[in-house]
Amino acid sequence: MSPTRRKSSSGEGVSVIAPRFDRPEVEVRASARRTKTGNAHWSGTRIVVQIPARLRGRERDVFVDDLVVRLLSQRPQVTGTDATLEERARALADVYTESIYPASVRWVSNQQQRWASCSPSTREIRVSARLRACPEWVIDAVLVHELAHLHEADHSKAFYDIADRHPRQAEATLYLEGYALGLGLVQEDDDVIGH
Ligand SMILES: [Zn+2]
């Protein structure tokens, strides 16, 4: 889908980027009065982004995407910060994994092909920031999956005995397969690193 644009020779104008699977419609307003900084805010269900008119091509796309991702990540939700994500993981550990607690849980933006990963030796869990846009039950299922890895590194029967205690694990897998497809991502089978 290509965005529709009304552009003057100065690069000023308004364009609209169609909604995608992981984000709503984005209205881009390019202004010559802006030189460096951008701004993003909600206007109903649409995100309005203001950018410097001088930006072109890929630089412009990256600038817009960055503002949109930052705004989306500011949505108030229990999984908003690393601290609340870790708290959530601990609460899930109480319920589903017989108190296999992680040492730390945090959002990361450098995982391109994994939803989450963990290091059983250090008990660290990292969750892809892409999941911020997902429903909480999906994030919960991913956290329980990683918590189970703290106990069983491989995808063994013993692993699934723990992971599948979360009642929506299979549903979450389906959801994420669709989500990956929508984002044009290729998922790796093995989501564990650093045994
Ligand atoms: Zn796994």
Rg over CA atoms, rounded to whole Å, is: 20 Å
Q: What is the count of DSSP helices, taking H or I runs of 4+ residues?
A: 5
What CATH first level of the largest domain would be assigned? Alpha Beta
Q: Which architecture of the largest domain would the CATH scheme give at its second level?
A: 2-Layer Sandwich
Ligand set = zinc ion
**What shape does the CA trace take?**
elongated
How many domains? The number is 2
Decide which structural class fits the backbone: alpha/beta
First-last Cα distance: 42 Å
Strand order of the largest sheet: 1-2-3-5-4
Largest sheet properties: 5 strands, mixed
CATH topology of the largest domain: Zincin-like
How many β-strands, per DSSP?
8
- Under CATH, the homologous superfamily of the largest domain reads Metalloproteases ("zincins"), catalytic domain
Task: Give an overview of the whole structure.
- The structure is a single chain.
- By secondary structure, the protein is α/β, with parallel strands linked by helices.
- It has 2 domains: 4-73, no CATH class; 82-183, Zincin-like.
- It is 36% helix and 21% strand.
- It has helices spanning 57-73, 82-96, 136-151, 157-163, 169-183, and strands spanning 4-7, 13-17, 26-31, 39-43, 46-52, 104-108, 116-119, 124-128.
- The strands form 2 sheets. Strands 1-2-3-5-4 form a 5-stranded mixed sheet, with helices on one face. A 3-stranded mixed sheet has the order 6-8-7.
- Strand 2 and strand 3 (26-31) form a beta hairpin.
- The radius of gyration is 20 Å and the shape is elongated.
- Bound molecules: zinc ion (ZN).
- Zinc ion (ZN) is lined by residues 145, 149, 155, 191-192.
